[in-house]
# Entry
Amino acid sequence: MQIRKKIVVTYITLSGLSTLLLCIVVFFLFKQNNEYYFLKRLQDRAKIVASIHYQNDPEKARYYRELKKHGLEELIDEDDFVLKVNGHNSFEYNTDLHLPHEFYDDVMTTGKGWVKQDEHRYYYAQLFEENGLKYMVIVTAKDRRGNTSTIYITRILVFGGIAFIILAYFFGRFLAKRVINPVSSITKEVKRISASNLHNRLPLPGNDDSDEITDLTKTFNDMLDRLETSFEIQANFINNASHELKTPITTILAESEIALLKERSSEEYTQALEAINKQASRLSNLTESLLKLTQTGYDGTKQVQDITRIDELLLDVKCDLDRLYPNNRISIKLNDMPEDESLLMLPCNRPLLELAVGNIISNGVKYSDNEEVFVSLNANSKNIKIVITDIGIGIPPEDIPYLYEPFFRGKKASRYTGYGLGLPLAMKIIRMHGGELIIQSEPDKGTVVNIVFHKSNIRKSNVKS
# Structure
């Protein structure tokens, strides 16, 4: 069932139940009110009948008869009886009255009472005392007017309830339209948006007040912003990757075609093979970097497998870099080590984390022209912090926002060999481990890179026991 129909049905159901409950309450209150005032009229007649019975003066008796006849509203099939009470539980009985014994017992006990018989006939009885004698006065009449009024009010409630249900149907449709139309408009607009027009945005509602529909529209627009950015990054990545991969492939094809055009000397073949090997190595390194970049992510779903001491990891990275850059001037400072060795332990994917830290340190070596690179480590109960400092070319302020985009290379960095993948890859790996990468740099003075692993962000649940 559509939400629009659900709203209409729910509105009609709730309105119907509310109307039914209201009609029932009104009906019973009206009926009780009729009954109460009819009994009050019988009570007034009982007092007048008693007054007539007590009077020894014929004139006064006649006055009360006239008052009863002309001063009070006429009742249907009205009759009255006066029964003498002989004792506590004894009274004269009238054979014309066919009332239950419980009624008489109640009157004798409480001094008054009433009972209803034959649907519309009421009997009201009350004890009166005069000159030491007790009497039970019983007045009876039919309340046909009250019954007619009850039928009339019942008809009003029934037809009024049906009319209100019909109105509730149209009100429910109007309400559903007011509620669903904005959502339908959002759905229609979203269906129009595809990968080719991600720049389109949903129009905000005309009202200035912030409501759920406005929040939903803003949420969709924010999602479209993120999608558009992701598509742009993906498109740029594909374009740059295609360009970077095309260059060595083109060189390899050109060298091989030239070498095959005619017979050549062994030296020429050697030069051609060396050029092909160089470009093939470049292609291999680039492909490996791309694979590692795509295998890491921002959501931390990469399985963490090891618990590693960070100081040992730094020393292993230094050994690897010593083989790659034999003349490097990397200095690792481990002077400020905590007494508790457990503070140096970090759940991680060690090969990936070594790759990330090695990329950052090797960048310091490369872009400082093999000047000194200082690596310091600090650990406490809250975080583990690695600081890498070089005195190289630095990073211009305008390049900093683009450092983590794959294949991006600043103007100064373009003089050095590289693909622009090392830092984006390192950032992804560090973020995957719950860490934070902070870069501070000044052109021609150097760069300071802070790698901070907050203990509260480390996913210990991913550690295999």
Residues 297-302, 460-465 have pLDDT under 50 and may be disordered. The CA atoms of residues 303 and 415 lie 37 Å apart. The two ends are 50 Å apart (CA to CA).
